[in-house]
Amino acid sequence: MKAVLDHVGIAVQNLDEALAFYRDALGLEIEAPEEVASQGVRAHVVPAGPSALELLEATRPDSPIARFLARRGAGLHHITLRVDDIAAVLEHLRARGVRLIDAEPRPGAEGALVAFVHPSAAHGVLVELKQPARPAAELLPKRLPWGDLELISVHDGLFGLDGGAMFGVVPRALWKAPAPPDERNRILLAMRPLVVEAAWGRLIIDCGAGDKMDARQRDIYALDRRQHLDHALADVGLAAEAIDLVLATHLHWDHFGGATVRCDGALAPRFRGARYVIRAAEWYDATHTHDRNRASYLADNFLPLHDAGVVDFFEEDRTIRPGVRVVRTGGHTAHHQIVFIESDGKTAVFVADLIPTTAHIRDAWIMGYDLFPMETLAFKQRFIREAIDREYLIFFEHDPRVAAGYIREQAGRRYVEQVV
Length: 420
Known about the structure:
CATH superfamily of the largest domain: Ribonuclease Z/Hydroxyacylglutathione hydrolase-like
CATH architecture of the largest domain: 4-Layer Sandwich
CATH class of the largest domain: Alpha Beta
Number of helices: 11
Helix content: 10-25%
Radius of gyration: 24 Å
């Protein structure tokens, strides 16, 4: 069980007086209040470093906060510990005979799940357990007609990487707002392969992490497998057997781990009826690693494909299938590539790790993982200008909330107009 301090709840009789101290005297910012009707309370969050204060104002006389104020007056009401899996934590506590107020989680503020531990079990302190809301709804697969093609945004679940590594030289103070880190400095990321459906067959671009990681690796990367690619394909009426072609942008584990699967102790291609299309130079780098890239290239993800005779290599930028072509960007890896999908005069681009999330639409917001960051910068500057001017639909592989959108620019400020 891992838990970190999320916030301290303070019951207040007079909100104006409380704000006069916390906001005016201390100079702290107060977020817009959120009303939790089921509890008869209005919560005012006061950020204070990695944790927060929560000023609790009763909205009806029979609410728990109103009863607390009548009995004990204003003051400390509870502490809240943030956990990853609240159901597992409650089971852990029940097994140890801890007295609970809530046997099961219930809805709380900010879309979280919460449960309370009885003060008698915590030496007189009311303890709230909180599992923050996860953006599961934003991972729902979606079909998008695209001229003579159909684009199907799917996913392979959620994971986390170090925020500093994801934003390189950008200070934490700037990136933590669009990408809030957890207590281990990991930001929430998605894995979003893209299926292209056409008269010539079905192609999937990248295929997520898969399920071969051990417990230690899953913990390091906060790998969440409750929803994954098999679920997403099933939601759109497909299965791995329906894929004819698997196209790799590059061979890092979070993009190509799902290419193979472990069956009866042996590794085999996951998409049994498919050919795997891989840039030859990227394959060379993945099979000739060095200290800087070794952790990203895991041989079990791709060597079994070669052994099975299902890999088709190519050398230069080319059209993979009608309407689908690849362009080398370099930067992230020496032979990282993006995928253009063109039909009926419209262009969509699967940008992989050139622009992993919507926060990375700023030119200099480049990952510390990139082996050749100046190459990333040069290509990114040219590409984003072109994407804005020509209205390319951009598919963001790692954004947890936005699968695709148009990059817009107004008064020198860039933003993403979400489509999927």
